C-alpha cells in the first residue's frame, strides 16, 4: 500500500510544482511523507519558500482529495499524512499469505557467501558472513529476484595441500562421533606444528600444489577427499544456522575447464601486465600501490587467478553479482573489481563486514585456537532450553527442545545481523537470549503472543479499521514492510530488517498494553483481532526473511 500511495503523492506533487524531482522523504514523527520542493522552487522563482508551500498545499488538496491523504505545510515543508483508506487497505494486504513479496523481476542475482577454507569447522568469525549472505539471499527472493546462492570451495590452495600431506603422513585417529570438519582441523593443526619443526615439509607442500594444478589424478583425488570430508561437516553447521546454499562451486573446476588459463592469456597482453618471473598487474591507476600477483615464478597460479575466472563465469550467468567478504579481504576484493573492469567484465558488488567475536578473544584455525560455530550453537541452545524450561515447565520435553533450538538459532542470527556490517561486534550471550528487549526471542515472543490471542479468539469477522493512536502506529509500521524489503535490495544493508522487526514487535506490545482485545466486544473486538492477525502475518514474514523460526508457542 505504501508504494501505491507514495506514487499518488509523487505524481500530484510533480503536477502542481512542475518539478521532476519533488524531494519526497520520510516525514519523521510529524508525517508519513514530507517534501522540501518549496526550497528548490524558491531559488527559481525568487519567492518565499513558506508561501510557495502554502500555495502548493491548496492545489495538492484538490489533486489528492479522493486518496484520503491529508496535506499541510509547516513553514517551507509540505507534509502528507495517510488516512483511513490507507490503513484499511494495509490491513487487508497484510492478511494475505506471503505479505511483503514484491513483483517478480526478470533479474538474476548471484550471491556468494561464507566460502571459508575447508581446513576446519566454521568458527564464530565465519558466522557473520553466513548470516549476512543468507539474509540478503532471503531479502532478494522476497523482492522478486531470481537468486542463486553459491559457496566457492577453495579445493586446491595451500591449506588443502597441508591437510592432504597431513592425511598421508600423520596418522591421527578420528574420535568417535567427531564431525569431519573437526577431524580435518585436528590434522591441519598437527601438520602446521610439524612444518614449524621441519621446514623441509614446505617443499612437499609446494610439490602437491604443482601436481594438483597439473591435474595429477592421485593428488586431485586426495585433495577432493579431504575437502569433501570437511565440507560435509560445514554443511551440517550451515543447516543448523538456516543458511543453505544452492550450489558449491569448486575453484579447481576453473583450472580443468580452461577458463583460468583463458583469463590469464587476456591479462598477459594488457598494458598493465608485468612479467618479471611472475605475472602481476600494475593497478596504480586504481589507487593500488601493491601489485596484483596472479602467477608465481614456478608457473603455478595463485588463488586470485582462479577467483577471476570464477567471477567472469558468475558475471556471464547473472545480472548482478554480490560477494560477502570480511574486512580483511578489502584489498584483494577491490583489486579483483579493478582487474575485471580492465578486462571489460562485470565487477561484483561487495558487502564488506567487520568481525564478530566472543568475549573469550580472537581465533585461529592454524593454531587450533577457535570456538566453532557448532560449539556456539550448542551452548546457546543449552541456555535457551534453561530459559524455556523456566518459563514453560508445563510443556512436553520434545516441544521444549524444539523451541529451544529455534530460539537459539534465532538468537545467534539476530545478534549478528542487528549490527550494521561496517561495525565490529562481540556476541553477548545474555542480550542474545533476552526475552524482554533487543533480541530474536523478544520478536519471536511477540509472534507467539499474537498466535495465542488468535487461538483464544476462535472464529471472528475481519474488520479493517484502525482508530486508536497505537492501532494507527502499528498498522503504519506494517505498511512499511514491503518498502524495507525493497530498500535493502537496493542498499545491501540487511540490519535494517532486524531493526524493523524489533520495532514492529515493540509497537505490537504497546498496542496490546493499551488496547484490550479479547475483553472487548462486537466490532471493536473484531477490528483489533484483525490487526493482531495482520501483525502476526507480518512478524512471521519478517522473521522468516531473517532466517528465524516464527514459533507459535514460547
Secondary structure topology:
Blueprint: H1 2-17, E1 24-26, E2 33-35, H2 37-45, H3 49-63, E3 69-74, E4 77-82, H4 84-94, E5 108-112, H5 124-142, E6 146-153, H6 158-169, H7 180-197, H8 201-214, H9 217-240, E7 247-250, H10 253-256, H11 259-268, E8 273-275, E9 279-281, E10 292-295, H12 303-316, E11 320-326, H13 330-342, E12 349-353, E13 356-357, H14 373-391, H15 397-417, E14 425-426, H16 429-432, H17 440-457, H18 469-479, H19 481-491, H20 495-514, H21 522-545
Parallel strand pairs: 5-6, 5-11, 6-7, 11-12, 13-14
Antiparallel strand pairs: 1-2, 2-4, 3-4, 8-9, 9-10
Helix pairs in contact: 1-3, 2-3, 4-18, 4-21, 5-19, 6-7, 6-8, 6-9, 7-9, 8-9, 11-12, 12-13, 14-15, 17-20, 17-21, 18-20, 18-21, 20-21
List its salient traits.
five-stranded parallel β-sheet, 14 strands, Gyrase A, domain 2, Isoleucyl-tRNA Synthetase, Domain 1, alpha/beta, 11% strand, 55% helix, 554 residues, four-stranded antiparallel β-sheet, flat
What's the count of strands?
14
| Backbone structural class | alpha/beta
Principal-axis shape: flat
- The radius of gyration over CA amounts to 28 Å
What is the CA–CA distance across the termini?
32 Å
The strand line-up of the biggest sheet is 7-6-5-11-12
Largest sheet: 5 strands, parallel
The helix count comes to 21
Structure characterization notes:
With 554 residues, this protein is an alpha/beta fold. Among the domains are: 2-82, Gyrase A, domain 2 (2-Layer Sandwich); 156-243, no CATH class; 375-545, Isoleucyl-tRNA Synthetase, Domain 1, CATH 1.10.730. 55% of the residues lie in helices and 11% in strands. It has helices at residues 2-17, 37-45, 49-63, 84-94, 124-142, 158-169, 180-197, 201-214, 217-240, 253-256, 259-268, 303-316, 330-342, 373-391, 397-417, 429-432, 440-457, 469-479, 481-491, 495-514, 522-545; strands at residues 24-26, 33-35, 69-74, 77-82, 108-112, 146-153, 247-250, 273-275, 279-281, 292-295, 320-326, 349-353, 356-357, 425-426. The strands form 4 sheets. A 5-stranded parallel beta sheet has the order 7-6-5-11-12, sandwiched between helices. Strands 1-2-4-3 form a 4-stranded antiparallel beta sheet. Strand 1 and strand 2 (33-35) form a beta hairpin. The two termini are 32 Å apart. Mean pLDDT is 94; it is low at 362-368.
Amino acid at each position: 500500500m505504501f508504494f501505491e500511495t507514495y506514487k499518488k503523492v509523487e505524481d500530484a506533487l510533480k503536477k502542481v510544482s512542475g518539478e521532476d524531482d519533488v524531494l519526497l522523504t520520510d516525514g519523521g514523527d510529524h508525517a508519513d511523507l514530507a517534501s522540501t520542493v518549496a526550497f528548490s522552487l524558491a531559488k527559481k522563482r525568487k519567492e518565499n519558500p513558506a508561501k510557495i508551500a502554502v500555495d502548493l498545499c491548496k492545489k495538492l488538496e484538490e489533486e489528492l482529495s479522493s486518496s484520503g491523504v491529508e496535506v499541510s505545510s509547516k513553514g517551507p515543508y509540505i507534509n502528507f499524512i495517510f488516512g483511513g483508506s490507507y490503513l484499511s487497505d494495509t490491513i487487508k494486504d497484510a492478511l494475505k499469505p506471503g505479505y511483503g513479496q514484491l513483483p517478480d523481476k526478470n533479474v538474476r542475482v548471484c550471491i556468494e557467501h561464507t566460502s571459508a577454507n575447508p581446513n576446519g569447522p566454521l568458527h564464530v568469525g565465519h558466522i557473520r558472513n553466513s548470516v549476512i549472505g543468507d539474509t540478503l539471499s532471503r531479502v532478494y527472493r522476497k523482492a522478486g529476484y531470481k537468486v542463486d546462492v553459491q559457496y566457492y570451495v577453495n579445493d586446491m590452495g595451500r591449506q588443502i595441500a597441508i591437510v592432504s600431506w597431513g592425511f598421508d603422513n600423520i596418522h591421527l585417529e578420528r574420535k568417535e562421533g567427531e564431525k569431519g570438519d573437526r577431524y580435518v582441523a585436528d590434522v591441519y593443526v598437527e601438520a602446521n606444528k610439524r612444518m614449524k619443526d621441519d621446514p623441509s615439509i614446505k617443499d612437499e607442500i609446494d610439490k602437491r600444489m604443482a601436481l594438483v594444478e597439473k591435474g595429477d589424478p592421485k593428488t586431485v583425488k586426495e585433495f577432493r577427499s579431504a575437502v569433501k570430508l570437511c565440507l560435509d561437516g560445514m554443511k551440517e553447521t550451515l543447516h543448523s544456522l538456516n543458511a543453505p546454499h544452492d550450489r558449491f562451486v569448486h575453484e579447481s573446476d576453473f583450472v580443468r575447464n580452461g577458463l583460468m588459463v583463458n583469463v590469464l592469456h587476456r591479462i598477459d597482453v594488457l598494458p598493465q601486465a608485468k612479467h618479471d618471473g611472475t605475472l602481476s598487474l600494475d593497478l596504480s591507476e586504481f589507487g593500488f600501490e601493491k601489485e596484483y600477483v596472479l602467477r608465481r615464478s614456478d608457473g603455478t597460479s595463485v588463488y586470485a587467478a582462479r577467483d577471476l575466472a570464477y567471477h567472469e563465469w558468475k558475471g556471464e550467468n547473472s545480472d548482478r553479482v554480490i560477494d560477502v567478504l570480511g574486512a580483511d579481504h578489502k584489498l584483494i576484493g577491490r583489486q579483483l573489481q579493478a582487474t575485471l573492469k580492465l578486462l571489460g567484465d562485470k565487477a561484483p558488488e561487495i558487502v564488506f563486514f567487520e568481525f564478530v567475536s566472543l568475549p573469550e578473544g580472537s581465533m585461529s584455525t592454524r593454531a587450533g585456537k577457535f570456538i566453532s560455530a557448532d560449539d556456539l550453537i550448542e551452548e546457546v541452545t543449552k541456555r535457551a532450553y534453561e530459559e524455556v524450561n523456566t518459563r514453560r515447565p508445563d510443556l512436553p520435553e520434545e516441544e521444549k527442545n524444539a523451541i529451544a533450538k529455534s530460539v537459539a538459532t534465532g538468537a545467534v542470527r539476530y545478534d549478528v545481523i542487528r549490527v550494521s556490517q561496517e561495525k565490529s561486534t562481540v556476541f553477548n550471550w545474555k542480550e542474545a537470549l533476552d526475552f524482554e528487549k533487543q533480541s530474536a526471542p523478544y520478536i519471536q515472543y511477540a509472534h507467539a503472543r499474537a498466535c495465542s490471542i488468535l487461538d483464544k479468539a476462535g472464529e471472528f469477522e475481519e474488520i479493517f479499521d484502525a482508530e486508536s493512536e497505537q492501532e494507527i502506529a502499528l498498522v503504519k509500521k506494517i505498511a512499511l514492510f514491503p518498502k524495507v524489503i525493497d530498500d535493502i535490495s537496493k542498499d545491501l544493508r540487511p540490519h535494517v530488517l532486524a531493526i524493523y522487526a524489533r520495532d514492529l514487535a515493540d509497537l505490537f506490545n504497546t498496542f496490546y498494553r493499551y488496547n484490550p482485545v479479547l475483553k472487548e466486544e462486537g466490532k471493536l473486538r473484531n477490528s483489533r483481532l484483525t490487526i493482531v492477525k495482520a501483525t502476526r502475518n507480518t512478524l512471521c514474514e519478517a522473521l522468516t526473511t531473517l532466517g528465524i523460526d516464527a514459533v507459535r508457542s514460547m
